[in-house]
Write a structure and sequence with these properties.
16 strands; Arc Repressor Mutant, subunit A; Aspartate Aminotransferase, domain 2; four-stranded mixed β-sheet; disordered N terminus; Aspartate Aminotransferase, domain 1; alpha/beta; about 15% strand
């Protein structure tokens, strides 16, 4: 079928900026419905995003996000140099059925009413949830997937599948596979100076579930918490979705400013921190500041949630010991994830909870999800116990240091005077400050050239505090990808 360019219009399209549904989803639904109703036919060309945005009186970013969803779900296709078209692969019969049903019934989709919590969750979708999900330079927080020993993992998985008893594949313990809890407790005691027993370890389906469990068990509707400013937006969204109020607390070179937190929000019930490697700025919380934070928690009968997401990857000296290891009053809830040290698709994380919280956290986990997949837990246990985990971390530590050095070298070569790098001796990403310009605009322009450049400003809970910068992930990308990506970004930023 030949491509047909049509005059594009969506009669009756009304945007409600006060609605719980984000504006880009309203555009997405309008275009999707027009396709399903056959008002936009297969092969018809859509206008350029700038023209579309101008016609509808909205931002181009909103249109780009809506088109991204339509592209991902197959409603539209894009061809370099040609434009964007309604997909020809949508079954004509399905379109006819939709059109016939609408004519015969005259009904439209009913509006479903969300709960207050549901509306909060829908409203918290941030920039990172709206961008493309494929892996492109310089997406942060992703390990070197091409370097992971998947062949070894497959052999271990096959062996576990054969050796596990059939009873193991029934409903498992909501706290997790017991051998994995024991292996983790041993590992954390030795490598992170975490004070724990296997009974305190709770296996979760990643860090987001861990944060959600803590939020539901120790915080109430309307409670305030301290969060690092800037900080991990995924945690902030989970807390806000639970009805928790965020009190952003600034940072300095030693980490969270406890004195500022006391002034900003003296009655906070919890402090969420990344002390070993602050996300996204990269500093390590100093010992005096750690002690000050623990003293605050004891004084206020508050909790500290320590997110130790990638501290294994420290390039100078040994990894910094955990904050939890300094806690003798059971104030700290410790959490970690295997998404950064192994691969995100594993979807396994863990909590190490004070004994008084263990039963409540396990009960909360069982209410939302019985347990994590047993085969993955058993395979991970063998991976740890047989030494492959420690070996992989040592190998990746060397590789990531090399890749960080490549990134810094290329930034200094091609972006000197444009951005300023924040030094970091740990982790999978680096942050750089912009000397001038809008980091979100740069991110959007970079996406058009195949780069996933995260603007630093999206990590601020309070937009008034935001400073422009870029968070560069480097661990997943080789020398060629890093160099070509920086050259491309330099051209974009110097236009």
């Amino acid at each position: 079928m030949s491509k047909r360019k049509s005059e594009f219009s969506l009669p009756g399209l009304i945007f409600d900026k006060s609605a719980a549904s984000p504006l880009y989803l309203q555009v997405y639904e309008a275009v999707r419905k027009a396709i399903l109703d056959n008002r936009l036919r297969p092969g018809e060309q859509l206008p350029p995003t700038r023209e579309f945005a101008a016609t509808l009186g909205i931002s181009r970013t909103t249109v780009l996000l809506a088109f991204d969803h339509l592209l991902t779900e197959g409603y539209i296709t894009g061809k370099t140099g040609s434009g964007t078209f309604v997909s020809e692969t949508i079954p004509e019969k399905f379109l006819e059925v939709c059109a016939t049903a609408t004519k015969e019934t005259g009904k439209t989709s009913r509006k479903m009413r969300l709960s207050e919590r549901g509306m909060r969750m829908a409203a918290t979708a941030n920039y990172t949830q709206k961008i493309r999900q494929n892996l492109r330079p310089f997406r942060p927080g992703i390990p070197a997937l091409r370097e992971f020993p998947f062949a070894l993992w497959s052999r271990l998985s096959t062996r576990q599948l054969k050796s596990l008893s059939f009873e193991t594949f029934g409903y498992g313990n909501s706290a997790g596979y017991q051998p994995l809890r024991e292996a983790l407790a041993n590992y954390l005691r030795i490598s992170r100076a975490v004070r724990c027993e296997p009974a305190q370890v709770i296996i979760t389906n990643g860090s987001q579930q861990a944060i959600d469990l803590v939020s539901r068990v120790v915080l109430g509707e309307g409670d305030y918490i301290w969060m690092e400013e800037p900080g991990y937006s995924g945690a902030g969204e989970t807390f806000v979705g639970s009805g928790v109020q965020i009190a952003p607390v600034p940072l300095d070179s030693q980490g969270l400013l406890i004195k500022n937190g006391r002034k900003i929000c003296p009655d906070a019930r919890l402090a969420y921190v990344t002390p070993s490697h602050q996300y996204p700025l990269g500093m390590t919380m100093s010992l005096p500041r750690r002690i000050e934070l623990l003293e605050w928690a004891v004084e206020k009968n508050a909790w500290v949630l320590e997110d130790d997401y990638d501290s294994e990857y420290r390039y100078t000296g040994h990894p910094i010991s955990s904050l939890q290891g300094l806690d003798h009053q059971d104030c700290v809830i410790y959490m970690g994830t295997f998404s950064k040290v192994l691969f995100p698709g594993l979807s396994l994380g863990y909590l190490v909870a004070p004994s008084q919280l263990v039963d409540a956290l396990i009960a909360a986990r069982s209410l939302s999800e019985r347990s994590s997949p047993i085969l993955e837990q058993a395979t991970l246990t063998a991976f740890i116990e047989e030494g492959h985990f420690g070996r992989h971390i040592r190998q990746m530590r060397v590789l990531y240091q090399e890749r960080q050095e490549m990134l810094i070298e290329n930034i200094r070569k091609y972006l000197d005077g444009v951005i300023k790098i924040c030094p970091a001796a740990t982790g999978l990403q680096l942050t750089a400050w912009l000397n001038s310009g809008d980091d979100r605009q740069i991110s959007q322009r970079a996406a058009e050239f195949g780069l996933d450049v995260r603007p630093l400003s999206i990590y601020y809970a309070d937009p008034k505090n935001a400073k422009p910068g870029i968070v560069f992930g480097y661990a997943a990308f080789n020398e060629t990808e890093i160099k070509n990506g920086i050259i491309t970004l330099a051209k974009i930023m110097k236009i």
